[in-house]
Design brief:
alpha/beta; 41% helix; 5-stranded parallel sheet; single chain; 6-stranded parallel sheet
Length: 500
């Protein structure tokens, strides 16, 4: 009589296979006790593992993959300090509404409360910075927790999720038949806005004397560029974009009024918000940056966001692509267009021309030292329209946003909603990997201020190790923000003992 022994599988294999089942392609991190086996198993099942120099930058990279692909990547970290280093990246992903999964090794279960190696309340710590944080209760249910984390990171407002794996769970085994199997979670169900609200929104825009469309990062993440371009072209409405909303409709469009941003915000009487929040980036929708009687039309997938800071005149709750498709469909039946001869266009065009002349004057450095405007003016001559631009640093980012046009969506990444410095190299690594594997014709250009570069500068070694074709431009103004003039430095050396 023959006997057969059922295959035993370890926790590391179960985790890796569950990640593959959920469509995870990339894993960023730093391996060490107790997650070394997990890093090895992830590579064995086909996940592309990128070893970084710091967990924070690894989490930035993983979250950028989530934004660019609408599928979360994984940040793998060791216990204690390694997991803590990733919290900044998790918070950044949550604020930007980008999906990412962080998997952290932790103290063996039988050592909890005993002062185990790098013991720390990791699940509790992660809850403040994530949508979902949990520790599997058994090996067999690991795929359940992985599927839930991936689904939670994608559904509703996207964000970070954390899975805690004790070291003894990574090395433990059980029969393969005991492992629960979960299929890949489907894309988030699409929801439509109330049709009567769609009609009401279009009626407000049609009656407006000074309408404006603001295109936010949510439009880029939501892949709504075709629908929004159709809407802008059909209605003839002026628009501007938030920093990472740039390129959803080309900055070179005749209808783009980004060069008159302050004027447009201050005097618009009806504003359509497409995937943009009325947070600090848009001055909370309040005077003096906006009219006191401005009417907002909000398009958002999160009901809690409706009426935030300012009560919206019309709320269009739903998926951005679907809702703008509803606007297009209803608009076709009405067939109206904001007139190019409207006085509002004269106001905006005049301000655009004034600002153009001012910018042109600042690019001329024949009578003075090199400045940001001159640098970006020269860079523009060498950048392809399909470059993915990574930009960070106070002035480098702010001036670069105005000076470098974007023609395509998701081709500009910067400090984002959380205003995070240090994201640049992580984002650039993520973008370069995606380009290498899926879009080899694209270039990645990372433009950094010297201070911003310093936050994650050692990731330059990661770039070299993986032979990633990233072009780096460091704009060095000799300090933070506006930097220091040479005379100021000389004076500082005289009076500051720490410098002498």
């Amino acid at each position: 009589m023959s006997t057969s022994t059922e295959e035993e599988v370890g926790g590391a294999v179960i985790i890796a296979e569950a990640l593959v089942a959920q469509g995870v392609e990339y894993m960023f991190g730093i391996v060490g006790f107790p997650v070394i086996e997990l890093g090895v198993c992830a590579q064995a099942v086909g996940i592309k593992y990128i070893g970084m120099r710091n967990e924070q930058a690894a989490c930035y990279a993983a979250s950028a993959v989530g934004y660019l692909t609408r599928r979360p990547a994984v940040c793998l970290v060791v216990s204690g300090p390694g997991m803590i280093h990733a919290l900044g990246g998790m918070a950044n992903a949550n604020e930007n509404c980008w999906p990412v999964i962080v998997i952290g090794g932790s103290t063996d279960r039988n050592q909890e409360g005993c002062g185990g190696f790098q013991e720390f309340p990791q699940v509790e710590a992660a809850r403040l910075y994530s949508k979902y944080a949990a520790r599997p209760d058994s090996l067999s249910r690991i795929p359940f927790f992985i599927e839930k984390a991936v689904r939670t990171s994608l559904y509703g407002r996207p964000g970070a999720c954390y899975i805690d794996i004790p070291g003894d769970m990574i090395t433990a085994t059980l029969p393969r038949s005991a492992v629960q199997v979960y299929e890949r979670c489907p894309p988030m169900p699409k929801t439509l806005a109330d049709p009567s609200s769609v009609s009401q929104a279009l009626a407000l825009l049609r009656q407006s004397k000074c309408p404006l469309v603001i295109i936010g990062k949510g439009s880029a993440y939501g892949r709504a560029e075709n629908e929004i371009r159709e809407f802008i072209a059909a209605t003839g409405l002026p628009f501007l974009a938030t920093p990472m909303g740039k390129g959803v409709v080309s900055d070179t469009s005749q209808l783009c009024v980004g060069a008159a941003r302050s004027k447009a915000l201050q005097e618009a009487d009806v504003i359509l918000l497409l995937g943009a929040r009325l947070n600090w980036i848009l001055h909370f929708g309040l005077p003096p940056r906006f009219r006191s009687d401005v009417k907002f039309i909000q398009v958002d997938l999160c009901a809690e966001q409706m009426g935030a800071n300012i009560r919206a005149a019309v709320c269009l709750l739903g998926d951005i692509r679907v809702v703008v498709s509803q606007l297009n469909m209803t608009h076709r039946q009405q067939d109206w267009r904001f007139p190019a001869s409207a006085p509002w266009w004269n106001v905006l065009s005049s301000r655009i021309e004034q600002n153009r002349q001012m910018t042109e004057a600042m690019t001329d450095t024949s009578n003075g030292p090199l400045n940001y405007y001159a640098v970006f003016d020269e860079l523009n001559k060498h950048l392809d329209e399909n470059c993915i631009i990574i930009s960070e640093g106070a002035n480098t980012m702010d001036i670069g946003r105005a000076m470098i046009p974007n023609d395509l969506p998701r081709h500009r990444l910067d400090a984002g909603t959380f205003g995070t410095m240090g994201v640049g190299l992580g984002y650039a690594i993520a973008a370069a990997l995606l380009c290498r594997d899926h879009f080899p014709q694209k270039r990645v250009v990372c433009i950094e201020g010297d201070s911003a570069f310093g936050f994650s500068g050692m990731e330059l070694e990661t770039v070299c190790r993986y032979k990633l074709p990233i072009i780096f431009v460091i704009i060095n103004n000799n300090g933070i923000s506006f930097g220091q003039e040479e005379e100021d430095w000389k004076e500082a050396f005289k009076t500051d003992s720490t410098l002498s």
